[in-house]
Amino acid sequence: DEHRVTSYLHHLVAGKLQGARLGVVRQLSETETTDPEVNASFEQALLDLRAAGAQTLDVLIVELDEIPGDDFWCSRFRYDIERYLATLPDPAVRTLEQIIASGKTHPSIRNSLRYFQGFSDPPEQDESCQRAWENGRRLAEGVRRVLAENDLDALVYPTWSNPPRLIGDLLSPAGDNSQDLSPHTGFPAITVPMGLVGEGYPGLPVGITFLAQAWSEPRLIELAYSYEQATRHRVAPTTVPELEGR
Questions:
Q1: In the structure, what pLDDT confidence band is assigned to residue 246 with cuts at 50, 70 and 90?
Q2: CA distance 196 to 97
Q3: How far apart are CA 195 and CA 199, in angstroms?
Q4: What string of H, E and C letters represents the secondary structure of the chain?
Q5: Which of 102, 101, 104, 97 is closest to 78 using CA atoms?
Q6: Is the pTM value of this prediction over 0.85?
Q7: Which of 38, 55, 33, 52 is nearest to 194 (CA)?
Q8: What is the phi/psi pair of residue 55, to 5°?
Q9: Can you tell me the distance from the alpha carbon of 186 to that of 213, in angstroms, rounded to the nearest whole number?
Q10: 239 pLDDT exceeds 90?
């Protein structure tokens, strides 16, 4: 409770990038499968951040390279979903096995569901969970070190390094950076639009993520809101009506 602010609305203030120090995580923006258009949008975003008064510098989070990506994840899906189903008064299914047998899941996730069927232990007894928690702590320490040693307000990187792909497409590069830092460290992150890529009108949206130390939400809101107001990249969807104010 001591870390909570009265209202986050007070931090929706433009112009707060002036004097901010931002670390650029190129381990996430420059990969073997990074889309050139997305990368160009990110480079333009860095120019826009500097134009708004921020300083940017490249940083290296060594733990991202040292720890295999799969070793951050805990195989607790079956345990969690079956505990949830047990709380419902009359669910159509009660087990992951019954969900799989129903055939009512999208084909693109069926192999993953079958994989999780093999893990039924509570997280405290699951070796993958123990490994994931320890690696998450290591990564959090690494991010704290980078922030402190460089006197940074936040880290920035593309939310995805590739354009959005169609549901069920398991062949195109995913480039999902949103799962690489925030979930494993527990640190807050905010994504806002940084442009549109691809053919057709208006194009496909891509975003930039701001991430910082635990309990830094007020400052993150200031940074992300200031960038959003300075660039105005958001394009309202054309398939739904405008939201009405209340």
A1: low
A2: 41
A3: 13
A4: CCCCCCCHHHHCCCCCCCCCEEEEEHHHHCCCCCCHHHHHHHHHHHHHHHHCCCEEEEECCHHHHHCCHHHHCCCCHHHHHHHHHCCCCCCCCCCHHHHHHHCCCCHHHHHHHHHHCCCCCCHHHCHHHHHHHHHHHHHHHHHHHHHHHCCCCEEEEECECCCCCCCCCCCCCCCEHHHCCHHHHCCCEEEEEEEEECCCCCCEEEEEEEECCCCCHHHHHHHHHHHHHHHCCCCCCCCCCCCCCC
A5: 97
A6: yes
A7: 38
A8: -105, 135
A9: 9
A10: no
Give the phi and the psi of residue 124 in degrees, each rounded to 5: -65, -20
pLDDT at 38: 96
Give the closest residue to 113 by CA, choosing from 134, 99, 129, 130: 99
Query: How many Cα atoms sit within 13 Å of 146 on the Cβ side?
Result: 24
CB 38 within 8 A of CB 158: yes
Determine the residue type at 218.
P
Give the model's pLDDT for residue 202: 78
24 within 8 A of 46, measured Cβ to Cβ: yes
Token readout for 79 is: 């345990």
Sheet holding 21-25, edge to edge: 55-59, 21-25, 154-158, 204-211, 189-197
